[in-house]
Amino acid sequence: AQEFSIMGGFNASNMSSKFEGKNYSDQLNYNTRLGGHAAFLVDLKIGKVFSIEPGLMFITKGYKSQFSVPNSSDFRLKYNTYYMDIPILAKFNWNPKENFRVYGGLGPVIGIGLFGKIKPDNINADQQVYFQDNYPGIPTSDKSIDFGDDNKRMDVGLMVTTGINVSKFRVGVFYNQGLRNIALNQFKTRNRVFGISAGYTFQ
Q1: Cα(166)–Cα(98) distance, integer angstroms
Q2: What is the distance between the alpha carbons of residues 6 and 167, in angstroms, rounded to a whole number?
Q3: pLDDT by residue (tens digit) across 46-76?
């Protein structure tokens, strides 16, 4: 037997970044970016307890940053990316009573970068010089993200999820940790996303 789920919800994303072995995530004050996702999932039963659940998920990723520049005003930057993720999860299902199920899952995620944009705010000439001298590779004006030139288009991550099914309704949470360095410049960058989903399950 198989089940289909249509899910949607909110997620909080961030990125880890290193440059020449130094952790720049804290120096650049990476903060969580709020976004959303929509997913279509197929649950393939393997007995009463185990199942395999592949799916397609359109999801926002990235981060936002705000930090001080010496002798200048604060600098803000939004790094917005949009992906089509393909999770393939091994799930454990527990049915303590009729029409109620608790599940947990773990598995790989393949992410395909679709489009994105970097949006700096409140930047002036002094800040541009500061960034060019101290943080090469960070744009100081609006810039579209060109997957294949700026970032690797394909991402690989590991997702863990848990949730409940009540009758035909489903609520869950997930965390996706990027495993692949997606940067093509001097930085080593990985995605990470936490999400909350709700949806409808049918056969």
Answers
A1: 9
A2: 14
A3: 988 999 999 999 999 999 987 666 666 677 7
pLDDT tens profile 121-131: 766 666 677 76
Give one word for 114, left, alpha or beta, with left for phi > 0 and alpha for psi -120 to 50: alpha
Contact 166, 157 (CB under 8 A): no
- For residues 167, 169, 171, 176, the Cα torsion angle rounded to the nearest 10 degrees is 110
Q: What distance separates the 2 farthest-apart alpha carbons in the chain? A: 65
The predicted pLDDT at position 141 comes to 72
Tokens of 128: 């541009």
Determine contact, residues 184/151, Cβ cutoff 8 Å.
Answer: yes
pLDDT of 167 higher than 80: yes
Distance CA 13, CA 85 (A): 14
CA angle 166/45/100 to nearest 5° reads 15
3-state class of 42 per DSSP? strand
Q: Quote the mean pLDDT of the chain.
A: 89
